[in-house]
Amino acid sequence: MSPDTAVAAAPAQVEIFAPEKRRGRIRTFIRRHPAIAFGGALLFLMVLAAVFAPLLSSIDPQALAPARRVRHPSAEYWFGTDMLGRDVYTRVIYGTRVSLIVGFAVAILASLLGLIIGLISGFIRVLDGVIMRVMDGLMSIPPILLAIALMAATRGSVQNVIIAITIAEIPRVSRLVRSVVLSLREQPYVEAAIAAGTTTPRIIVRHILPNTLAPLTVQATYICASAMITEAILSFIGAGTPPIIPSWGNIMAEGRALWQVAPYIVFFPALFLSLTVLSVNLLGDGLRDALDPRLAKRI
């Protein structure tokens, strides 16, 4: 075979073996990080259920039917019906939307705001004392109590629930980012950048910010899981989303009066909440192991 022919055949060989190499990398990644694979797959299924809820059930989650009230699970009503005749399966599927929206929104907002506060507090010593005392004051109040207090001052809605839980989670993110920034500030390359006259925003963006993303990503997964639980608690006690919006907390609150007669009204939304929180926590544990170089060497 001439050199020209060998060169021409090389791209075809790459195209043949590239998919096999990708599949091999995926299998290796799943074998090394089973928590990420299982948690991510389970969370992906929950996201699909939330997105395609109208396709998974053609029944209106708010449709009242007194004639079919409190019917146990059957082939017609998979999860049974509640005291107003509403299909529990449909309401649970639509409730997935509320929990995921609240969880993802709180994780993103709390991470961004906490990141900004932590960067400023950790790098600018003049503002550190004032900012951290405010964060300490917020952290002295349990998150659920702070969220209840904030919801008591507003009307029940998904937006207000997101804001209330975000305010309760910001101090923990800012504390985490601040601790990372304080350790990075003493590194020789940061001191060299300061001595060279590099501006503070440039130092933060180029040298500090990239090193905070790994722990911040892991923390965001735990915030997401915590926000889902907090939203369910707020809705369960009547301080969260309004009853007209199907959420897992609302469904469980409406079914607690019939616990002995129809426990399935509480069981199914609690099961979906547990599986969703489990998937996010597994994803967070897997990311922690994957992003921590000390743990990665042991795998």
Describe this structure as you would to a colleague.
- With 299 residues, the protein is mainly α.
- The chain has one domain: MetI-like fold.
- It is 76% helix and 0% strand.
- The protein has 12 helices and no strands.
- The longest helix is centred in the last third of the chain and has 37 residues, at 200-236.
- The chain is flat and about 80 Å long.
- The relative contact order is 0.14.
In CATH, the architecture is: Orthogonal Bundle
- How would the global form be characterised? flat
> What is the number of E strands?
0
* Termini separation: 44 Å
| CATH fourth-tier homologous superfamily | MetI-like
- Assembly type of the chains comes to single chain
Q: Kindly identify the CATH topology.
A: MetI-like fold
Derived from helix and strand composition plus strand pairing, the structural class reads mainly alpha
CATH C-level category? Mainly Alpha
Which stretches are poorly predicted, pLDDT < 50 over at least 5 residues? 6-16, 295-299
Largest sheet: none
Helix-strand sequence: HHHHHHHHHHHH
Radius of gyration: 25 Å
Task: Please give the share of residues in helix.
Answer: over 70%
Based on the model shown, name its key terms:
single chain, 299 residues, MetI-like fold, 12 helices, disordered C terminus
Layout of secondary structure:
Blueprint: H1 3-32, H2 34-51, H3 53-56, H4 88-123, H5 125-139, H6 143-152, H7 158-185, H8 188-195, H9 200-236, H10 248-255, H11 264-291, H12 293-298
